[in-house]
Request: fold
Amino acid sequence: MRPMPNLIRALFVLVLMAASVVLGTACRAAPPEPYAPGLGEMMSLQQMRHAKLWFAGQAENWELAAYEIDELGEGFDDVVKFHPTHKESPVAPKDAIPRMIAGPLKDLRAAVDRKDARAFVQAYDGLTAACNNCHDATNFRFNRVQTPTGNPYANQLFILPH
Ligand code: HEC
Reply:
């Protein structure tokens, strides 16, 4: 290869330096915003837990039921933390959740602690009603939930083998 003329070599070095400055700035640009799932995404998880809780209660798998109640509680804590208010909603999730959900979750815990299948069904209805009441209050009344009519989680054992 013929040696590069000095001018071309100097230009080449300059271009490389400029590119590294541009790239370096891009990398140091504002750090990406931490990811927080949208309220709809969080609700989809709550929907899953609400369904699994039902099948756990029907199977009288009280450990799993207690676990799903805890998960629901944590999910609602996340809603309060990441979506204290929501769009044009006249009722803020941070106010609605302690007011509407804490009671039903407590009743469910009590039923599960007593391993009381009848009280469980009653408390479960209370939770479902609270979910729907909050959808009404936040102007999402078209999102209605109910006691599951079939189990979508065919890959999970609700009745454990002995
Ligand atoms: C703070 C009041 C509130 C409570 C309590 C609440 N929700 Fe919601 N839910 C909402 C709002 C607001 C939306 C619409 C979110 C959006 O903008 O995507 C929603 C959306 C949903 C959706 C639709 C999600 C989708 O993308 O398809 C489901 C399903 C749902 N909720 C289930 C539940 C269940 C189950 C419970 C009770 C265990 C519950 N929600 C309790 C306020 C609430």
User: Anything to note?
Assistant: The domain at 39-137 is CATH 1.20.120 (Four Helix Bundle (Hemerythrin (Met), subunit A)). The radius of gyration is 27 Å. The mean pLDDT is 92. Residues 7 and 13 are 10 Å apart (CA to CA).
